């Protein structure tokens, strides 16, 4: 059985980690995801525009893969520091992220894909341990 000091140390680590949001991952340092659930979306096509999604670096929810959706259809799972580019038709799309059993919940956002205007989005976990989806310049 662990002693009191060991338990206090573990508790301190968990408490410190739970108060920290994740940090942006530069695209140049991100690694491609190996879990592609809809390969058709990863192929460029006439009129389609690149939309890149990358998951932040950081300890918070780091043990879990987040499943990404486009229009309710899963297209990939991202772990910390991973990236994926999909190709969508111009227009409005709903993008979602789900943490599964990890407790960070889910998030959705509407994106507007414009002709010849690729965009990059950040999948992060905020200080309240909730998933966030947002455009990013990183």
Can you walk me through this structure?
- This protein is mainly β and 138 residues long.
- The chain has a single domain (21-135), classed as Sandwich (Immunoglobulin-like).
- The protein is 11% helix and 41% strand.
- The chain is built from 1 helix and 10 strands, in the order H-E-E-E-E-E-E-E-E-E-E.
- The protein has one helix spanning 4-18; strands spanning 31-32, 35-36, 49-55, 66-70, 73-78, 82-88, 91-98, 106-113, 119-125, 131-135.
- Strands 1-6-3-9-10 form a 5-stranded mixed sheet, with no helix packed on it. The protein has a 5-stranded antiparallel sheet with strand order 2-5-4-7-8, with no helix packed on it.
- A hairpin with a 5-residue loop joins strand 9 and strand 10.
- The radius of gyration is 17 Å and the shape is globular.
- The termini are far apart.
Mind describing the biggest β-sheet?
Answer: 5 strands, mixed
CATH topology: Immunoglobulin-like
Quickly give the CATH architecture. Sandwich
Count of alpha/pi helices: 1
Q: What would you give as the CATH superfamily?
A: Immunoglobulins
* Total count of strands: 10
By secondary-structure content and strand pairing, the structural class works out as mainly beta
- β-sheet strand percentage: 35-45%
Question: How many structural domains are formed by the residues?
Answer: 1
Q: In angstroms, what is the radius of gyration?
A: 17 Å
CATH class: Mainly Beta
N-C termini distance: 46 Å
H-E string: HEEEEEEEEEE
């Amino acid at each position: 059985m662990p002693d009191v000091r060991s338990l206090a140390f573990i508790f301190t680590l968990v408490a410190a980690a739970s108060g920290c949001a994740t940090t942006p991952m530069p695209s140049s340092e991100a690694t491609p995801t190996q879990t592609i659930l809809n390969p058709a979306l990863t192929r460029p096509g006439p009129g389609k525009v690149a939309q890149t999604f990358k998951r932040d670096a950081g300890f918070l929810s780091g043990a879990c893969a987040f499943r990404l959706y486009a229009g309710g259809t899963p297209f990939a799972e991202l772990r910390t520091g991973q990236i994926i580019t999909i190709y969508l038709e111009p227009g409005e799309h709903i993008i979602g992220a789900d943490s599964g059993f990890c407790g960070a919940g889910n998030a959705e956002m509407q994106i507007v894909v414009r002709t010849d205007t690729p965009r990059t989005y950040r999948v992060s976990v905020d200080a309240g341990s909730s998933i966030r989806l947002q455009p990013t310049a990183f």
